[in-house]
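Justification of resources, computational component.

The compute hours requested in this renewal are based largely on the per-chain cost of generating structure records like the one below. Each record pairs the submitted sequence with a full structure-token output. That output is archived, and it is also reused by downstream analysis tasks.
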Amino acid sequence: MRTLFIFSLALLSLSAVAQKVGKPETYAKTITAADLKKHLYIVAGAEMEGRETATAGQRKAAAYIESEFKRLGLQPGAGSGYQQQYPVYQDSLLEARLEVNGTAFALNTDFNANASGLDATMRFSEVTFLPSGLTADSMNALNLAGKLVMMQAGGGMQYAALQGKGIAAILLISPAYPRTTPPMLRSQMLYSFRKSITPQSFTISPSVAQAILKTSVDSARLRTDNKPYKADVLLQLKKQTTELQSSNVLGVLPGSDLKDEYLFITAHYDHLGKRGDSIINYGADDDGSGTVGVLELADAFVQAKKRGNGPRRTIVFMTVSGEEKGLWGSEYYGDHPLFPLEKTTADLNIDMIGRSDSSRKGDTTNYVYVVGDDKISSELKPISEAANAKYTKLELDYKFNDPNDRNRIYYRSDHYNFAKNGVPIIFYYDGMLGADYHRPTDTPDKINYPLLAKRAQLVFYTAWDMANRPQMLKRDTPLPKLSR
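The structure output for this chain reads:
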């Protein structure tokens, strides 16, 4: 009888926990256009200097997000603090030389060197020219190991195919010389040790190419010529590597009976930074909109917990940096998780939800692009669509959901670094911004704040279900085996 009594009490206790999860509408309404606007004019303001990774502007943005997490009473998600620091390695070009048959050419006037190349001096006696019209079969038949290769710039597919050929260096012919605005003489990377070293890369003017070919660089030659040319070419690069710091910012709302399972809500808070002292890439939509969405979602869940309707699972609100550099912050988190990935039920990632895609067919005032909800877990899509049908009634557009879509959106935001580690994801997105994409004109005054609030509320309702359902999401749908 005693055993039965204890078992009955346990059932009553679990039932009470389940009953404490109230209705989400009250808390979703706290996600307002006015609050989102207030946050965004700060996050995408001039003081943040465009929030480029590993700069003072990014650190200011991280400090603001951390202060908001503290104000809400979220627990620190990175040990004793809120920021998961990670290193960024920056190569700065100190010197570059290019000589052909003893004749020196001038930096910016005739050539430029990629600062991420090897700190080395290379001397070649032969250059292999690859025309733009070269077929894949012809390229595969070439032995290019250790060679200096020259080709026309802009041949993306051809350049990618060369990466596995073992070439030593590459010269890319560009008409953009002399350059009135020199390129940045630095590059950054997440890891200083690499699995493989890419070829030394120099961009050259047609006059340099002509000195190598000993003839004019005409369009016919660029399309069809394919042979080695005798030329003594010296390439020299000297650089300095500096270790910088960046961070992901994590605030944690502990769950109740399922507190050892986790739901992540993410966005990237970095952007492109400044050009010179006066031109700022504000990044209001990309991804200031997602960042402030995370802040408002955190606030809504905190209000729910204060009224006795906290989540059963622990919710981790994470804003990452380095997305614009190549998903660095989320990659670093995936390699150094602070919470078990196998216990992470899902990641809901928000990257650009404040504007409309003018090229979209149909209504541009009541939609959101949804990516990834039919992958990894068969339970994702029904949850997402049910939440939308019951509460927000947005048009869910799956235009970018195909991994083979030419825009490759599935691979281009931070959810991917959860997905590749087996965590179910949904990515919320408003589409490309046309002329404002990655431009200084992506500003807070252009945001549709009511639509931003409605989209954020959809994420909230979806998260509410995932945080409170009895079981973690199934992982029963294999990811397509496609390289990024």
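The mean pLDDT is 91. The first strand starts at residue 75 and ends at 76.
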